Amino acid sequence: MGYNYAQENHNHEFLSSTDYEEDDEGVLHNHRIAGVTGPPIRYGKSHVHKVDVLTDTFGDHFHKICDTTGPALYLTGGKHIHLLKGTTARADGHEHDYYFTTLIEDPTNVPDDKKC
């Protein structure tokens, strides 16, 4: 499936966790990630989204994530998700890796024949 002009104005929610790392005091921990992507940006015959968010705080620090999703991965019914894989900004002597998918774009737009 290619880029659909009807999907030009949308974004995606996301929530995930980072991997575990030790801070500068040797404490093993991870962080929660949650937010909403920016609007779609054309990318070839598809589109991507910018993600600019802070993780939750652990102890005395948090991490910034500024990244771009991969292109749309289409699901049954024309809905889609995006993958995002990267590394947070360094804070408190370390960084974290993350790997997650966005949530389905417009999950409440269920066709009448699929409703209970």
Largest sheet: 3 strands, antiparallel
* Count of DSSP strands: 11
The helix-and-strand class reads mainly beta
Termini separation: 28 Å
* Total count of helical runs of at least 4 residues: 0
Mean pLDDT: 89
What level of helicity do the residues show?
Answer: under 10%
Query: Given the C-alpha coordinates, what overall shape results?
Result: elongated
Describe this structure in words.
There is one protein chain. The protein contains no helices and eleven strands. The chain is elongated, with a radius of gyration of 17 Å. The model has no long low-confidence stretch (mean pLDDT 89). The protein is an all-beta fold. The chain has strands at 13-17, 21-22, 28-29, 32-36, 40-43, 46-54, 64-68, 73-74, 80-81, 83-87, 97-101. A hairpin with a 5-residue loop joins strand 8 and strand 9 (80-81). The relative contact order is 0.24. It starts with 12 loop residues before the first strand and ends in a 15-residue tail after the last strand. Strands 5-6-7 form a three-stranded antiparallel β-sheet, with no helix packed on it. Strands 1-4 form a two-stranded antiparallel ribbon.
